[in-house]
Amino acid sequence: MTSVTASTWFATSSVNRTGHEEDLINRAVSLHPLTNYTFGTKEAQAERDHSVQARFQRMREEYDKIGMRRSVEGVLLVHEHKLPHILLLQIGSTFFKLPGGELNPGEDEVEGLRRILTETLGREDGESNQWIVEDAIGSWWRPNFDPPRYPYIPAHVTKPKEHTKLFLVQLPEKGVFERCRLQMTTVLFSLVRCSEELQACCRSPVRAI
């Protein structure tokens, strides 16, 4: 088991902090070897949207009815050769994303993330996965009905169309994950080689936003 403390990720100062705050900042995150986990497959779930255009059209229609969309994503960490890696889902040949999805109206963020992780990666043999949601570590805001997202609300935007909150998920020491056959494949990205979006996630403070 490899433990990575928050101070390993983020430059922090101890000035004017209470002992409790110091404990939170320096709390260790346990990373377990990739070889501790087994990856299976399950039947693919039907896609709600068949194209990017259809997705944003549905977002527009839902916005008129219930307002801003609320989404969550999970940051699941393991290590390989003692280097931290992040688990991503691969859709098609070129698109990678954190596991997550849309919350139902009024649904709690943590409970919603656990539901989505179970639907996406949960086992089909009746055994439940242990999704321990630790911290909110960042947010993405979508100003309009189009792809660009930002880690802040742009000054000219008064009504963002989607808020996505990222949570650190502590994995158990060992586990079995299932993924949708032919639709998604779990892959690993090293934190030092991750995309611009994930790099921003890694730089986000470990705090609720």
Quaternary state of this entry equals single chain
Give helix % range. Answer: 10-25%
Report, as a whole number of angstroms, the end-to-end distance: 30 Å
Q: Which band does the percent of strand residues land in?
A: 35-45%
Subcellular location: Nucleus
Organism: Steinernema hermaphroditum
Keywords: mRNA processing, Nucleus, RNA-binding
Family: Belongs to the Nudix hydrolase family. CPSF5 subfamily.
Characterize the structure shown.
- By secondary structure, the chain is α+β, with helices and mostly antiparallel strands.
- 22% of the residues lie in helices and 35% in strands.
- The chain contains 5 helices and 11 strands.
- The strands form 3 sheets. Strands 4, 5, 6, 7, 8, 9 and 11 form a 7-stranded mixed beta sheet that branches.
- It is globular, with a radius of gyration of 18 Å.
- It starts with a strand and ends in a 6-residue tail after the last helix.
- The C terminus is likely disordered.
